[in-house]
């Protein structure tokens, strides 16, 4: 692989080395047992720093979603350790991982996963209800204002556009003030304009609120909104780019689809 396009993998973004990691993966591997074992991740080590926006890219089957699921505590690695701040998530049992996810992480997916019978405000309040907390109307209103939906708070999902529904999903993910927001192809179901609005919103919550965002995407334009891009191939972390354009990211991703260009 031409490393003029993709830099060698480092632990975290070098320019921000003074900041603490929000997420740390140390020698993480994940193997799924089937007729033949599937090695989804192979000895992946990386720090994602607090207050950063990181995109994760790679060819189909490269391990992107598996990395996201292990980092978020949705799945447990076969080997290695995962930390969320100073908590080793990989050492927790299922019940404690569920509690940690509920309190300290937020999730945004390609499917909006909103309850159709509830209003936008009620959907945003769901994480508080599930955690057994009293719903704080002021907090609900604040996050709806942050995503630009104050005047849509009483509308149900069927009365909102796709872009507005995704903003409700982002508000729901932010309402518990999570340590990290995880996003899996968040613009995949949106038109171009709505997708860009969603990405600008991620950029705003990182730059203005200090939120940490980790986003899996196949779209170089989406990845260009991030501070840096991590590239996976065959379950391995093979490189990164920082502050790159969509064209540079697209060129790097194209290289990863050609086995002859991959590093040995």
Describe this structure in words.
Helix 4 packs across helix 5. The chain has 264 residues and is α/β, with parallel strands linked by helices. The strands form 2 sheets. The protein has a 6-stranded mixed β-sheet, with helices on both faces. It is 32% helix and 25% strand. It is built from 8 helices and 10 strands. A hairpin with a 2-residue loop joins strand 4 (79-84) and strand 5 (87-88). The protein has a single domain (14-259), classed as Rossmann fold (3-Layer(aba) Sandwich), CATH 3.40.50.
Give the structure's gist in a few sentences:
With 264 residues, the protein is α/β, with parallel strands linked by helices.
Features:
264 residues, alpha/beta, Rossmann fold, six-stranded mixed β-sheet, globular, disordered N terminus
CATH topology: Rossmann fold
- Record the strand order, biggest sheet: 6-7-8-3-9-10
Mean pLDDT, as a whole number? 89
Radius of gyration: 18 Å
- Quaternary state reads single chain
User: Biggest sheet: strands, sense, closure?
Assistant: 6 strands, mixed
Classified in CATH, the superfamily is: P-loop containing nucleotide triphosphate hydrolases
The number of domains is 1
In helices, the fraction of residues equals: 25-40%
Report the principal-axis shape: globular
Uncertain spans, ≥5 residues at pLDDT below 50? Answer: 1-15
CATH architecture: 3-Layer(aba) Sandwich
Q: What's the total count of β strands? A: 10
